[in-house]
């Protein structure tokens, strides 16, 4: 296993527990920080009900993105 290969399962689990962490694990620091900022704003929008729609979408999107990027580096 090469050092730059990432485990897709681990990327998903990291994103499951903390949005953006899977992207950071995959080496996409800027994208991970972007997900963290977007999710924080989305949580704040829960006060006006919009966040109840956007937060789950960002959470799921983050997990899918982390998996797909890790899968590409894993060579699957």
Q: What does this 3D model show about the protein?
A:
- Helix content is 72%, strand content 0%.
- The chain has one domain (13-74).
- The relative contact order is 0.23.
- Helix 1 packs antiparallel against helix 4 (51-74) and helix 3 runs antiparallel to helix 4 (51-74).
- The protein is built from four helices and no strands.
- The protein has 76 residues and is mostly helical.
- The longest helix is centred in the C-terminal third of the chain and has 24 residues, at 51-74.
- The model has no long low-confidence stretch (mean pLDDT 91).
- It has helices at residues 8-17, 21-25, 29-44, 51-74.
Question: How are the secondary structure elements laid out?
Answer:
Layout (H helix, E strand, L loop, with lengths): L7 H10 L3 H5 L3 H16 L6 H24 L2
Helix pairs in contact: 1-4, 3-4
């Amino acid at each position: 296993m090469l050092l730059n290969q990432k485990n897709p399962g681990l990327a998903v689990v990291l994103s499951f527990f903390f949005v953006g962490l899977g992207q950071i694990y995959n080496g996409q620091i800027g994208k991970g920080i972007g997900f963290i900022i977007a999710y924080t704003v989305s949580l704040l929008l829960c006060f006006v009900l919009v966040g109840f729609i956007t937060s789950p979408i960002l959470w799921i999107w983050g997990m899918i993105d982390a998996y797909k990027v890790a899968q590409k580096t894993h060579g699957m």
